[in-house]
Amino acid sequence: MRMRKKKHADERIEACSDILLKLDENGELADEFLSQDKIHMEIGCGKGTFICETAKANPDISYIAVEKISNVMVSALERAKSENIENIRFIITDAAKICEKLKEHSVERLYLNFSDPWPKKGYAKRRLTHRGFLQMYKRILKPGGAIFFKTDNRPLFDFSLEEFAAEGFKLEAVTNDLHSSEYAKDNIMTEYETNFSSMGIPINRVEAYLE
After folding, report:
1. Which residue from 68, 108, 119, 160 could staple onto 94, CB 3.0 to 4.6 Å apart?
2. What DSSP string describes 170-188?
C-alpha cells in the first residue's frame, strides 16, 4: 500500500531547508558541514527518532541522515528543527547516490537500521548489506570505520554476516537478541524497533569494522 502524501509536504521540507544538504550547480555536495572531523551517517532515517536521539546524546559528532522518500523525511526534518538539534544534516536521496557524492574516507560510522530485507533471492543485490553496497561504503568509510546494523529479520541478518565477512569486515558485538544482551544499555531504538520489541520480536545487531 502506498504511503499517503502528507499535507503541504513540499512547503514543510522547504521550511527546513537550512538543515538539508543539497547538490550545487555542478551536481556536487558542497557544504561546510561535511568538513567536520567526526561524521556518522544513517541510511534510511525514517521519521528520525534514532538519528535525533543519537545526535542529542553525542553533540561532538556530526550526523548525516539519508532518506530517499521525501514524504517520510518530513517528520525527521521537523523534529530536528523544532528541537534545535544543530549537529544533523539531512539529504533526500538513495544510498548509492550519497556514496557517490561523499569524499573518500570521510565517514567514521554508518548506521543501517531495519533496512528493507528484499526477501526474494532475485532481489539480493538490492539489500543494503549486499557486497555491492558494502564496496561503496568501504570507499567512504575511514580506516577502522564501522557499520552498525540492526534488523528484526533473521534471514537478512545471517545473509549480512556472510556479506560483511566476504568483504573483509571484522565482526564484533554480534547478538540475536539485542534487548536481552549486554549491548542494550546504550541502545537507542528506532520507531520500527520499538514496535517490534513490544511484540516480543528479538532484534539482531552487529558492528562490522574495516580492518
Report:
1. 68
2. EEEEEES-GGGSTTSTT--
User: Which cell numbers in the block locate residue 11?
Assistant: 512547503
- 54: which 3 cell numbers? 543519537
Task: Determine the Cα–Cα distance for residues 125 and 132; give it in Å rounded to an integer.
Answer: 7
Q: Return phi, psi of residue 52, to 5°.
A: -70, -45
CA distances for 125 relative to 128, 133, 159, angstroms = 8, 8, 11
* Nearest CA among 211, 177, 182 for reference residue 197: 177
Rounded Cα distance between 194 and 108, Å, is: 26
Pairing of strands 141-151, 107-113: parallel
Cα maximum dimension of the chain: 49
Q: What are the tens digits of pLDDT across the range 98-111?
A: 999 899 999 999 99
Q: Which residues are CB-neighbours of 29 under 8 A, at least 6 positions away?
A: 21, 22, 23, 91, 101, 102
What averages of pLDDT result for each successive group of 10 residues across the chain (211 residues)?
Answer: 64 94 77 88 95 97 94 93 96 91 94 96 95 97 97 98 98 98 96 94 97 84
Distance CA(150)–CA(193), nearest Å, equals: 9
Residue 116: active-site member: yes
Catalytic residue among 10, 37, 116, 177: 116
Q: What is the pTM of this model?
A: 0.93
